[in-house]
Amino acid sequence: MNNISVSFLTGPKTTPDPDEENAVKNDYSAAIGALIFSLVFLLGVPGNLFIVWSILARCRQRSVTTLLILNLACADGFLMALSIFFIIYLAMQSWVFGNTMCKIVFYLCNSNMYASVFLITLMSVNRLLAVVFPHTLYHLITRKVVKRVILGTWVLVMAISIPSLVFRDVKKETDDMNQTTYVCAPNHTLRRHVRFEYAFQTVAGFIIPYAIIITSYVLILKRLRETRFQRNIRSEKLILAIVIMFGLFWLPYHVINLIQVAAAWYPKDSATRKRLQDFADLTRAVTSALSFISSCANPVLYTFAGKSYIKNNGFAFMAKLFEGTSSETGPKTTRFTATDDLGKNNVDSENHTLASTQQNRC
Fold first, then answer.
1. Would you report the helix, strand and coil content of the chain in percent, each value rounded to 5?
2. Which of 25, 161, 213, 269 has an alpha carbon 20 to 30 Å from 125's alpha carbon atom?
3. In angstroms, rounded to a whole number, what is the distance separating the alpha carbons of residues 222 and 53?
4. What is the structure's pLDDT at 114?
């Protein structure tokens, strides 16, 4: 989310040094930005509200996965709701909400960004335990433990988002036509501030969580291929789609973060710094928009995954999607069937345990 509004509003020049020249407003970019945010708002808010309604109104008993999806939808939906501030910001080409709201809005945006990433990570870890360690670790995951972990996650994201309160202020700008505007922009006064904020954001919000996600799904896919039902291609494709979608939306944004960190290491008059900074400024708006759009992608993904339920279940198809299917049994043996995050059967094990009961609930 950092700099997306500033980039769209003022054009491709978003500099970390307070004494560098500000760019002239770009009406075309502002219009494109407002259109993107409007589409995101119209798609993301109803989509995530529908997920919340499906879980709260249709699911009588909620599994670990469903609780995580519920919190993810709340985080994404709240982030989408904040886009109304940026629509007004871009339409008026001036921040009219004051300095306090400038800090609060971007703080909430970053908080929900971290929350989305961490909740997706928890979903992958939960799935790893259910599929790979159903008898040793997964049975230790009770509803009480899950609620404490989720609460701790929200406390953590609220804490690590504090730099957004510190490094952002409203700035007054006057253009060549002597017109005054206000922008809600980063207030990095030292190069180390740039390095700290963007490096911390990328490490905590992408590198560490995504490494955990990739590791989890590699182990999961390895386990799936070792089972009797190793031809469950649809489920494996869905797992890969979630991982790939997450990476496609967030990787470009964090690459630009690292480029901006690298630029801040060079002296102010360095030609290399200028090239890196110019590239980051030119691409910041696009990569920020992609990361923002990711919060409305999950409802679309779930809809495609659950389209086979629409005909028979109507508006309850999403709840049906989150429900676990019944355990498969074979002759003279009882097998444990672990379901994935979207309720598909994936893994056979030797014994029917408490984990199967938890996974076969919505």
1. 70, 5, 25
2. 161
3. 35
4. 92
